[in-house]
Design brief:
This protein has a two-stranded parallel sheet with strand order 1-2. The termini are far apart. The relative contact order is 0.20. By secondary structure, the chain is mostly helical. The chain binds a DNA duplex through helix 2, helix 3 and strand 2.
Length: 103
DNA sequence: CGTCTGACGATAT
DNA sequence: TATATCGCCAGAC
């Protein structure tokens, strides 16, 4: 089994602290797979109710839609509950809320 | 093996 | 900041 990239993604996502968000590209990079940002989102869509998927957003600090706007709204509410504020355009200020894995 | 699709990213304008 | 275009990789057909 070696290294299952997907599993690696999940582990990283689980490490995202409360009140912080991470981008798909960032996760892919941390997993050692730069450029696989799409795969990260793909892995999440597979079915992972156990991970804080709501803390994963795209590089613009926006919640990526997956054809179910309802879930997007839910994610937003959940993030706001963790003190993550959204801008007027519905975007998060990554400069302030992006998770810094280094610590 | 070629083609299309997708919870993305970076760059150019 | 918004839109357009290209690049990226894996999976489905």
């Amino acid at each position: 089994m070696d290294f299952d990239p997907y599993k690696r993604f999940y582990a990283i996502i689980r490490n995202i602290p409360r009140g912080r968000v991470a981008t798909y590209g960032q996760i892919a990079r941390l997993a050692g797979l730069p450029g696989n940002a799409r795969q990260v989102g793909y892995a999440l869509s597979t079915c992972n109710d156990r991970l804080p998927w709501h803390r994963v957003v795209n590089a613009k600090g926006e919640i990526s839609s997956r054809g179910t706007p309802d879930a997007v709204d839910k994610q937003r509410v959940r993030l706001e509950k963790e003190k993550v504020t959204f801008g007027k355009a519905g975007r998060i200020r990554l400069a302030r809320f992006q998770w810094n894995p280094k610590r």
